[in-house]
């Protein structure tokens, strides 16, 4: 049994609708339904009356939910208490972010904030999580901020009242590779197969890339020769001449050095926003000062 199953049941009980509960939990309806069924299998009883509209808990579900609610509350409090020990100091903050942003962008951002806000300690957590997990961490105080890329291809149906957000910078995705080797390979009259350095299918950048490549004349010539979740791995592969990777400019500039890694084209690109999320429930003074400084930009 997983804690998120209890939270799923609580959402269904509160909202009374599977589709809307799934939206509130930032998962697909089918995933939510599977998790509720798994919870019912674990509990050994039907917890949800699916014949009612709006959906209601069964008698067993109502009894189960009374204990489950207490477990959710206690788990959240325990996690928040543990998070306080994970902070470097009383003025410390924890920032969850994509690994790509942790390499270059976050150190510069923290340094800039040190100049504008009184010094603070920062713990950076570059983990791969779902949006649901990032928002849960914001809500229970495990992290103070979440920083990620934003693009039309990345759905962020987040309640801005509970999770305020700001655009704090921008980046751009371009095709990079050895210019001497792949200079004209994206041109319409070129029939050469294109060795693609591809993002893992579940990564945020994979969604962006699908959006960029959709309908491109050369899409039929793409041949995946290397796949990785991290942009840094694709950038190194591109630098070694293995193929073409669509990379954020900030990563390409960092890893390029004096090697032959250049934009192959500026046509097939995507503009990215760098966005920071907070939680309205987080009242820590250092967090509020940082947010106010970012808002003033």
Automatic annotation (TrEMBL):
Chain ranges of the HTH lysR-type domain: 1-58
Residues in coiled coil: none
Domain of life (superkingdom): Bacteria
Pfam family, one: LysR_substrate
InterPro entries: LysR_HTH_N (IPR000847), LysR_subst-bd (IPR005119), WH-like_DNA-bd_sf (IPR036388), WH_DNA-bd_sf (IPR036390)
Gene3D superfamilies given in the database record: Periplasmic binding protein-like II (3.40.190.10), Winged helix-like DNA-binding domain superfamily/Winged helix DNA-binding domain (1.10.10.10)
Keyword Transcription regulation: yes
GO molecular function, one term: DNA-binding transcription factor activity
Alphabetic keyword roster: DNA-binding, Transcription, Transcription regulation
Similarity remark: Belongs to the LysR transcriptional regulatory family.
Protein name: LysR family transcriptional regulator
């Amino acid at each position: 049994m997983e804690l998120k199953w209890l939270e799923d049941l609580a959402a269904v009980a509160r909202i009374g609708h599977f589709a809307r509960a799934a939206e509130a939990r930032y998962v697909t309806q089918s995933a939510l339904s599977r998790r509720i069924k798994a919870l019912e299998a674990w509990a050994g009883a039907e917890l949800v009356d699916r014949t009612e509209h709006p959906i209601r808990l069964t008698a067993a579900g109502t009894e189960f939910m009374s204990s489950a609610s207490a477990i959710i509350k206690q788990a959240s409090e325990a996690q928040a208490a543990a998070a306080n020990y994970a902070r470097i100091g009383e003025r410390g903050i924890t920032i969850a972010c994509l690994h790509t942003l942790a390499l270059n962008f976050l150190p510069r951002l923290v340094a800039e904030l040190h100049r504008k806000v009184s010094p603070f300690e920062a713990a950076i957590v570059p983990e791969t999580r779902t949006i649901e997990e990032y928002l849960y961490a914001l809500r229970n105080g495990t992290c103070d901020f979440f920083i990620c890329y934003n693009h039309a291809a990345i759905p962020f149906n987040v309640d801005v009242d509970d999770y305020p957000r700001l655009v704090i910078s921008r980046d751009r995705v371009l095709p990079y590779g050895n210019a001497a080797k792949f200079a004209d390979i994206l041109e319409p009259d070129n029939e050469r197969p294109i060795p693609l350095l591809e993002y893992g299918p579940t990564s945020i950048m994979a969604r962006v890339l699908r959006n960029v490549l959709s309908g491109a004349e050369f899409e039929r010539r793409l041949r995946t020769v290397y796949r990785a979740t991290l942009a840094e791995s694709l950038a190194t592969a591109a630098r070694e001449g293995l193929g073409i990777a669509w990379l954020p400019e900030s990563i390409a500039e960092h890893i390029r050095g004096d090697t032959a890694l250049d934009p192959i084209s500026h046509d097939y690109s995507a503009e990215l926003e760098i966005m920071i999320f907070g939680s309205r429930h987080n009242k820590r003074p250092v967090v509020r000062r940082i947010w106010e400084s970012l808002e003033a930009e």
